Amino acid sequence: MSIRAKTATNKSGEVVRVLFGCNGCDEWHGIDPSRWTWNSNLDLPTFSPSVLVRYGDDRRCHSFVRDGQIQYLGDCTHALAGQTVDLPGIEEFEARQ
Fold first, then answer.
1. Cα 53 to the center of its chain, rounded Å
2. Which is deepest, 5, 32, 71, 92, by most CB within 10 Å?
3. Residue range 33-85, pLDDT digits in tens
4. Contact 42/64 with Cβ under 8 angstroms?
5. What is the pTM of this model?
6. Which residue in 19, 27, 24 sits closest to 45, CA to CA?
7. Quick one: how far is CA 31 from the chain centroid?
8. Adjacent-strand bridge partners of 18
């Protein structure tokens, strides 16, 4: 199984960010686990509530991440709006960057 999320920690080892690759934006998206619910699974992450990322006034990515899949909502401004796809593996996504 491919690892689909990675973490960033502070000096004391506490997870302060969980990152995943977004195929729609071709960017990393991240959540703060103190503000979102996360299932602590890096292979099949689930976050709640939805993840909303805005780029200026005209670009947005809005999704649910559940069990290693990303469900892009209809208000996304990229080509994957309305689709559900597997999150890319970390190594695969990093290779594209």
1. 10
2. 5
3. 999 999 999 999 999 999 999 998 899 999 999 999 999 999 999 999 999 99
4. no
5. 0.94
6. 19
7. 8
8. 7, 31
